[in-house]
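hi! just following up on the protien thing from before. the input was this:
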Amino acid sequence: MTETGPSSLREKFIRDGYAILRRAISGSQIADLCSAIEGEPTGEAVRRKKSVYGVRNLLEMSPTVCSLAVSPGLWPLVTAILGPDAFASRAIFFDKTPDANWALGWHQDSVISVAEKIETPGFLAWGRKADVWQVQPPPEILSRMLALRVHLDDCSSVNGALRVIPGSHRHGWLDDELDDWKKRVPQAICAASAGDVVAMCPMTLHASSRAVQPTHRRVIHIEYAAESLPNGLQWNRQIRP
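and the predicted 3d structure came back as:
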C-alpha cells in the first residue's frame, strides 16, 4: 500500500535525488527489526548507551536486515530505479535519543564498503572500520547508487528528520559550491512515519539537525548498486532476492 507507485517515484528520484515511499513495511516487520537491532551484541560495530544507537555492517550481522533489503515492500522500488541487476551492498543503523542526540551538517555520502583493499585509480581515502574496508569511489559510481532509509519510528522536524537539497545529486562533488546551493535551492524536509522509506541518491546534499524533542528516531539505511567495480575490487556484500 503506497501513495505513489515505483515508476512515479523513480521519476521524482531522477529529478530531485530523493523520493518517499509510504507504508512500505508493516508494524510487525518494524517490531521484528527493532528486536533484531537491540539483540546485536556489543562490539566494535555496535554503539550502545542505554540502548543501541548505531550499528555498522548490518548485512554481515543480521539475517533480518538482509531479508528486509530484498523484501516485497522495498525491492520493486530498488529495481525501478537501478534495474534487475541491483543488489544491497551495505546497511547501517542509527538512532537519536536523549543520550545520543547528534547533528550532521550538509554533506554528500562518499564511501562504499569493499571486500579488500586494491589500490585503484580514482579510489581514495582508504580506511578500515569494524573489520570492513571502506573507500571513496569516483562520484560517477555513487551517482548510480541508491540509499533507502527505512524508518522504524515517526520522524519530523522536531526529532531530526532528513533534510535534502533537491537536484544536487547531478553535479558531482559540491564541497566548493555548498554555500551557493544552500542559498539558491530551498531545502526539503523528509518527514516520515514509521514504515515509510526515504529513497536518496548518495550524492544528494543532505543534513539532519539535533532533535528538539529527542525520542527514538530509528532508521535502517540500506545502500544498493547494480554494477561491478574495476580492477578486481569487489563489493563487500551483494544481497539479492
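Residues 39 and 187 are 36 Å apart (CA to CA).
The helical segments are 6-16, 27-38, 58-61, 63-69, 75-82, 139-143, 178-184.
cheers
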